[in-house]
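Appendix B, Record 12. Input sequence as logged:
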Amino acid sequence: MLHRYSEVFRTILIFLDLALVAGAWVAAYYLRFYTDFPSPQGIPPFLQYALVLPLILPVWFSLFRSRGLYEPQRTGSPLREIGGVIGATAMGVVVLVALSFFVRGYFYSRLAIGFFSVLSAGSIIGARWALRSALRRLRRKGYNLRYVLMVGAGDLAREVIERLHAHPEAGLRVVGALAGNPAVDGPRVAGVPVLGDYTVIKNVLNSRQVDQVVLALPRDEGHTLEKVLAELDHEFVSVRMVPDLLHVLTLRSSVEDLDGLPTINLRDTPLVGWAAVQKRTVDVAITLPVLIALAPLLAVLALAVRITSGSPVFYRQQRMGLDGHVFDMIKFRTMRDDAEAETGPVWTSEDDPRRTRVGSFLRATNLDELPQIWNVLKGDMSVVGPRPERPVFIERFKREVPGYMLRHKVKAGLTGWAQVHGWRGDTSLHERIEHDIYYIQNWSLGLDLRILLMSVWRGFRNAY
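Logged structural output:
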């Protein structure tokens, strides 16, 4: 029954897509030639455009299918589906352009093709969004559900169940779990009843409605995997496996296909491709006008440092940024020029006697950090990100604090998630790392904006 429902929905989706593609092609023809756009070579007969539809439709179907756009999307990302539609449409347009260039006897208006690409992608995305939204609402109300049996009752199973419960729109309801040792694992896991050990899996499948079996075995029970799979050989349920990698998954973990072989990215940065372009554009758009506007203030502060404590006005210090890149971070000098001659590299402290009079004011108001705007414009830093640290300290921190080096998977920032929560200067390294990793895992332009607003309204805490 589950397979039949999936095939019906898949068939509906295919016919809907093809109808929208055909409609977009016809609409593009009339929009191009029967509106106010000039046609120096006259209006071609509609039949010339209609005859290419038998080519367009199978090409679009093949491209959509190759991108997995007809696979079940209960737990898939809407943005990934939108990206797949846009990517498939772009490839199809390349085919059309090549056809108009190289196939004699046919000439298709570039403007018509442009209209078609926008209309087809837009209509398909809109239709799919409306359809998915309707399905999500139905699932929240208890319709169109799929029932899941969890094999495993440890931390991994608990994590999977909690995530399923957090997304009722997926329509996946966990009916129970099986444990390696129910007496030890307890009667429930994440609110779901433990129905017995792994040996009763056939009885559970025969006595309960189960559409999917999710294997979430802990590492120490991995040896039972083959036995469980053997029990499922003659069953009709779908089977999924969640590998126990909670102890190693860190940043933006994901699964990719390598010529049919699934590969798991354990540590990946969110700031690649278009996301990196977006963040860099925002950095320049913010810092360039700010630098121009603050130029008079920077000149006054530089003069104050020069008059009260001589040269140099700026203090350059090596810091580590993205992927371990070491750069010179620029600040207004706030201490004696020979501040570390006797002590060596040390952190500053409250009421540090090495600070100058103007330096105390600059550090208390964070005005000493303003020259780092230049570091952002150069690309060494970003407006928002983990604060950079000195390499000499990093050698120690990476041995003492697990996961410390993960903070270097994004550019260092003028302000960050840790700083607006008070973790700055001589404060808990563990708390700082937790906040930095949270930022990397949850990065978005919206989160950057939130941090900027918090920086403006709250300022930096523990700054000295």
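Residues 274-458 form one domain.
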